[in-house]
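Objective 1.3, modelling of assemblies. Example input:
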Amino acid sequence: MKFQAPRGTRDFLPEEMAWHSHLVDTWRRVAIRHGFEQVDGPVYETLDLYKVKSGEGIVSELFHFTDRGGRELAIRPEFTPTLARMVAERANALPRPIKWFATPNLCRAERPQRGRLREHWQWNVDILGLDSAVADAEVLCVAIDFLQQMGLGPEHVRVKLSHREVVRFMLSRLGVADEKMLEAFNLLDRRDKMSGENFTRGAMALGLSKSRVDRFEQMCRRKYSCGNVDHLRRSIAIEEPLAMLDALDEQLTAFGISDFCEYDLGIVRGLAYYTGTVFEIHEATGTERAVAGGGRYDNLIELFGGPVLPAVGLGMGDVVLTNVLRDKGLIPQEVLPRPLVFVVAASDEGARKVPGVVARLRRDGHHTRFSYRSTRNLGKLLREADGARARFVVIIGDGELQLKHLESGEQSSVDLEELSRRLHFPAGA
Amino acid sequence: MKFQAPRGTRDFLPEEMAWHSHLVDTWRRVAIRHGFEQVDGPVYETLDLYKVKSGEGIVSELFHFTDRGGRELAIRPEFTPTLARMVAERANALPRPIKWFATPNLCRAERPQRGRLREHWQWNVDILGLDSAVADAEVLCVAIDFLQQMGLGPEHVRVKLSHREVVRFMLSRLGVADEKMLEAFNLLDRRDKMSGENFTRGAMALGLSKSRVDRFEQMCRRKYSCGNVDHLRRSIAIEEPLAMLDALDEQLTAFGISDFCEYDLGIVRGLAYYTGTVFEIHEATGTERAVAGGGRYDNLIELFGGPVLPAVGLGMGDVVLTNVLRDKGLIPQEVLPRPLVFVVAASDEGARKVPGVVARLRRDGHHTRFSYRSTRNLGKLLREADGARARFVVIIGDGELQLKHLESGEQSSVDLEELSRRLHFPAGA
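Predicted structure (tokens):
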């Protein structure tokens, strides 16, 4: 019998896992230094939870099943419904603002394609209870700090910002009726993935004339650099969302990240629940799917039975990010943990002492390995230690322990009680 | 609409998550220092994978579903089948011995009870390709190092060791037929969870007379301390498994963990695939389910289509372990990450500088928070910083930055360029 990993999933062998852990650890480390606290929820939820914001249509995209009690359940395809449930249940007991992050694995029952697998990991960062552009800016700031940590600068990745109300105003002026607005958002969101012909057909189905479709297309393609909200103001007469963008612009500058950001009214995000700012982070040349996406969802907690609570959040998946980093040569070659010390026996008497020395070094916190072979040939054993990329070798013979620093070749005798303290270079110090 | 976490699952709010992360991080840190490399697999596998070693009977204990292509899939209830698949697929390309660990979440479709939830996390530690008691001892050694790290000593937890072939020999001598052997193992495994009456009924169903049932019972209750294999030798005439226990005994002593271990022939482990050494780690008074369990499974890789490969492994779940640690007061009160610095504004001009200072500190790697409130009252702001358990406060007014060490009250002015270097006590140094 032969088995394989299910389609669209990954096995993480030691090298891949070391990279994966590095990625998830960095998500965590950066989120914590930005004052976010980690949370998590179950890997499956009640199926109904996913219908709240996405309707019955979501069911075909989920892996769903029933338990013995006949309850309908589904593996989580995203984390936001779990977050909304957790917050809605306890909103009044939680100190505000709520700044949470999570690094869940998520599953989607779709056809796997580049940048989109059936199981992936996603960094979720959310601020709830803060109705201010500071929150929007902080969510972008933590994402950019992380991307910089991975070696990506403003020349590699771009934050494309928009605002649902600005887009709604412009679409409405073009002649899109209110009841067609979500459909128009979805069309806008899928624009980069469809032919010009299909886009035109979609736009005309919204009730737009041919000339209006062209203006729709132009509007999507126009970009504004940060600090340029006034430019937008000339063509848009609604003050409230522009004031929000002004405030955001000011915060992006204050947090020092405006060189990563630009306004792009072609960004709306397909999800129905965004209410204000929306954004995506893309590789600069636009060759990959979005590295991250998010925005304001001020009505969602109420929808899950909680109080009215303003909220803004971001999701960043591991698959597109890893593709982008690999393309740019930014994935480190050696991520596997490297042993500090390798213990070998130069005699049979020495061999009997190996487990005790190894156990002692490990208990003292040192990454320690030893040879499982029965050879006492020191040359062979040193080559094995070198192959394991150990920094030090402890040689146990009939006399005193010998400590050897592999790179320099320096060697000296050492007492077992002193050993742990001497594991730094030079070995004789 | 109100939603709850599904039955038998857990929400991890920040405090619970901080503990959970600490647990998983410690599993990882200890495994790495013992020379194990981390791996992981998909959260679901093909349903057939779970039938290989457990038969059709396993299906009712799984959350299973079909994808659009009609493939039968199941959320992983244990990690060993994934490990066996991964090794079987690539056995000849992997350096030996293979020393792998994983910390997967696992799901079981059973009735939740104390120590057993529908979703839990498990530390899996396995050594493959090493047919020596050194491997068995190392697997126990890494588990004990971890338990000691959590504050548990030989007075708190006991490793109960047995050997399938020794138990088989004794059962056979009592009159259990070969074809009833697995049934006898299962009865032995469930003994602590059933009444004496039911145990007797089960034993008689194996074909044992009343007096043999009593001897069966006695055999299960006899314990042997480590270093006492000779004691066992007097009553058992089969040399091979005893020689294995002798070798194991020697290794447990050499690794310095024999004070945690004892032989207990009542331990067999229910799973059909164990072939040699079997063990469980229990809280010393025996009030909880096993903290960990494992043993040798020398035939399993072959069963999954791989080569013949000796193997020994251990699984430790998070639920029983957390119960044991909580009962003994060994769960630290404060596990939430503590901010190093809290930035406050003493004036409106200062407030405009806050985001820049905060972003700079975070980019320099420091856990930094700031006040979202508009107050400039320094007393209130210092109380907020204290409530957040920050160590330092940076006060931004119209003049120079002030750095204050909260515990000592020491305060001095500081230059922004110097700030990150000065975040240690005393603040003036």
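Chain B touches chain A through 91 residues (CB under 8 Å).
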